[in-house]
Amino acid sequence: MKTMTVFLLTVLVLHIIGVIHLNHTHNIVYDYQDPKKEEPAPPVKVTRTTELGDLLKAISKVESNDDDKAVGDNGKSIGRYQISKAYWKDACEHDPTLGKKHNGNNKWEDCHIDNYATQIVLAYFDRYAAKHVKDKNWEMLARLHNGGPSVLKEKPPKKIWDNTTIYWNKIKKELGL
């Protein structure tokens, strides 16, 4: 964590003093000129890696266009991640603290709240696919989110696999992969 903080502060300072520029695709471009050459050297591009937060943003964009008030599947899925009651119950069974709050119980309807909905998705991922989270297997996490745990079987049902393939292609496009 300390190394990441130092890196980010270094990038910020270099950006401020003009040594590097961050372009709109999140690539870092270093401006380096060899003092022995009169022509500037071409920029070196370092592409950032995709992280879990990027996957969550992509899922939110694909599912609801980032709309916390979204209702889909004829009222069966809600919030930015389009969480169903079954998905919510699975997450709350895995992490019972998600079903409770200071003065009562959280409800499925609370999935309209961004931070709460994100905690539900993370608990669901942890319950069914902790290994895929650790391995940064964004494809299987996206498929799990869209198709449920049966997609993780050694031989998932063809219809679910095909449907989640379409979904994964949308997520990949959103991630720029």
CATH architecture of the largest domain: Orthogonal Bundle
Number of DSSP helices? 6
Give me the secondary-structure category: mainly alpha
Average pLDDT level? 81
Distance between the termini: 26 Å
**Strand order across the biggest sheet?**
1-2-3
Q: Unreliable stretches, pLDDT < 50, 5 or more residues?
A: 4-34
Q: Which CATH class of the largest domain?
A: Mainly Alpha
Q: Encode the helix/strand succession as letters.
A: HEEEHEEEHEEHHH
Q: Give the overall silhouette.
A: globular
Tell me the Rg in angstroms: 21 Å
User: How is the CATH topology of the largest domain named?
Assistant: Lysozyme
Q: What fraction, in percent, of the residue positions are helical?
A: 40-55%
How many beta-strand elements? 8
Domain module count = 2
**Amount of beta strand:** 5-15%
Can you walk me through this structure?
The chain has helices at 2-17, 52-64, 85-94, 114-134, 138-147, 158-175; strands spanning 20-22, 27-30, 44-47, 71-72, 77-78, 83-84, 100-101, 104-105. By secondary structure, the protein is mainly alpha-helical. The protein folds into two domains: 2-47, no CATH class; 52-175, Lysozyme (Orthogonal Bundle), CATH 1.10.530. Strands 1-2-3 form a three-stranded antiparallel beta sheet. A three-stranded antiparallel beta sheet has the order 4-5-6. A two-stranded antiparallel sheet has the order 7-8. Strand 1 and strand 2 (27-30) form a beta hairpin. Helix 2 crosses helix 6 (158-175), helix 3 crosses helix 4 and helix 4 (114-134) packs across helix 5. It is globular and about 40 Å long. It starts with a helix and ends with a helix. Residues 4-34 have low confidence and may be disordered.
